[in-house]
Amino acid sequence: MSTESRAQTVLAALPSVRPWQEDFYRDLHSHPELSHHETRTARRTSDRLRQAGFEVHEGIGGAGVVGILRNGDGPTVLLRADMDALPVKEATGLPYASTATDEAGTPVMHACGHDVHVACLVGAAQLLADAHDEWSGTLVALVQPAEETGDGARGMLDDGLASVIPHPDVALAQHVLPFPSGRVATRSGPTLSAADNLRITLHGRGAHGSMPQAAVDPVIIAASAVLRLQTVVSRELAPGEPAVLTVGSVQAGTKSNVIPDSATLLLNMRTYSDATRTAMLDAIRRIVTAEGEAARAPQPPDIEAFERFPLTSNDPAVTARVAEAFTAFFGDRAGELPRQSASEDFGDVPNALGVPYTYWGIGGIDPGVYAAAERAGRVNEDIPVNHSATFGPVLQPTLDTGTQALVVAALAWL
Ligand code: ZN
Ligand code: ZN
Known about the structure:
By secondary structure, the chain is of the alpha/beta class. It is 38% helix and 25% strand. Helix 1 (3-11) crosses helix 13 (395-411) and helix 2 (14-30) runs antiparallel to helix 4 (114-130).
C-alpha cells in the first residue's frame, strides 16, 4: 500500500489521541524548564513513550530520552524533538500561560515552541505503536535537552547515545515557525545557518592615562579590529553569499585615566556553507592578530569558541522523499521553507552517526490572524516570532499537523 493510504489508516485514530495530547501540551507549556534542567519534561515524556510500548532510556546527556519501538524487519527511522524553554516572561495571555521561574527567579517560557515538538512526537509515537500492522522496521523517538544552548545533542552523543540506539537509516525533525498553522514546509540543502560565537581577548599593556608611550592601548586595537571585521562579509565574500558577522559586545577598562591591559570582543557569526565558515574564521583570526601586531601587542589575541551550532543542510534525496509524501497527504498545505537565519543543533546527531537527515517547518499562527496581517502589510509588526514573549502557537491545527507530518514522513521509510 502507498505511504499516503497507510498514513490515512494510522492517522484515522488521531481523534482518540487528540484529547490527552492537548492536555500533555498544555501541561508542558505551563511547566517550561530551561536548558539542562528539563527533568520534569523528560519524566512526563518517558512515561508517555513507555505507556505506548517503547523501550525507554532516560538520563542520556542530562535529561535526554530515547524510546525504541522494534516492529520487525525494515529501516530504522529516528524522529527527534527538543524540549527546553527560554528565560522569557510569557505575555501571550493564554489560559495555560507559564508563570514559572527558575531557582534564581528568572521567568521561564516555552517561547520557541519546543513543547509543540515533544507533544507531536509522543502523539505520533502512540499512533504508530497502535497501528503496528501498517508498517515494519524500527522507530526511535529522541527527545533532546539543551537545544537553545547548542550543546544538548553533543551531550547525548558524549554520553553514549550511539550505543543505546540501533543505527538509524534516516533522521527527521521539525520546528514550529511563525507561518499559518496547518501548513508544512520543506527545504533541500542548507536550511538553517551554522552559528559560531567567539570570545576574543586582545592583549595590550596597561599604563597611566597620561603616559601612552608606556602603554600598548588595547582599546585602540579593539576599535580598529571592530571596524576591520566589518570588511570580512563586505569585501572578502562574493556578493550573494549569505553570512553575518556581528560584534555584539566590546569591553575594556574601568576608569578614564587608566589604560587597561586587555579588551574583550564577543562575536556572533552565521554561515550557510563549510567553506564560507572556514574562510570567515580564518579572516577573523588574521585581522585580530594583525591589529595586535600593528599596535606592538605583547602577545597574540586569545580566541575562544563557545555556543557553536552546526549548519543544518537537508539531504536532497531524503528531503525529496518527505516533500513528496507531504504533498500527497497535505496537498497545497505543503510548500517550500525559505532559508532561515536561525540555527539548530539537530544536525550534530545525524552528522556524528553518518545518517542523512531533513528538518522541516510547521506553521503555528492562526491562519485568519496571519491572513489579516498579510493584507495589512504588517506581518513583521503583528505576527509574533519564536523567542518573543507573545509567541503562543494556536493549539489546533498545529498539534494535528505536526503529528501528521511526523507519521507521514516516518512511513515514507517504514
Ligand atoms: Zn529557539
Ligand atoms: Zn527552537
